[in-house]
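Quick note —
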Amino acid sequence: MLSISVEEFLFWKKKQLSKGGDQQSFAVLLDCIGGLPTSDLNLISIKPEGKLYLKQNLEFLESIWNEHLLKCCPIQYLCGITFWRDLKLKVSNKVLIPRSETELIVDIVFNLFRKSEKLFFAELGTGSGAISIALALAYPFSEGVATDIDQDALEVAIKNYMNSSKQSNLKFYCGNWWSPLESFKGKLDLAISNPPYIPKNTYEKLPKEVKNFEPKLALLGGEDGLKHIKEIIQKAPLFLKERGWLILENHFDQGEKVRQLLIKNKFTSIEIVKDLSGIGRFTIGRYK
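Predicted structure written out below.
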């Protein structure tokens, strides 16, 4: 660990942020690479005296920050780590960086099922594994399966599960949406997906830090953004138990269209759930 005065560190921090970027990304860099948690960072800002200890020197941290600013590469990819709910997850450019708004999916599940229940759940398109791992930890008596079409993404998810849990209640399968789960037809209490839902025209206009670095496979949802959502909904009745739940994340303006697709496929108790910004980010329904 490298010792540095708080005064010197705060001067250096101010200089880095004056170049551009945002406080949140800088905090990720300091935590993941510097070994300085955000809670400690807040504390030294209030009491700027004494010394602090870093895992890496300021020159190395500055080189990563400069690369982030110069290339617009997400800081999470440069660090190889991101934080999501109470998880510390490995990420690479093979997986989407899990968004903070997606954390609400887990809260939706908490509203539907008691933590003591024995669920059998599936996540389609798991990416880094964030949602499935959070649920496997929160529901220790349950069993979960998670799929992804990309074996490289699955390797990231498996590592994250092994790093986050000593349990063995989550299994991973490679394949497109429902296809690896043929042996689980009619057995699921819950299915969840945050599929690619960005319409083609919107995808072309995405910020370069997203479009140039995050996997297109995990973002592009066809012409109208609903290509994958339609497939998931249409096949869900084959895999869900009677009165099983389906939870989908969708684009900010797709809630009503997704609701109609659920109605068409005999779902009931349908609800569009808003995120913390008041946007209809999730659509949920119960099969019959």
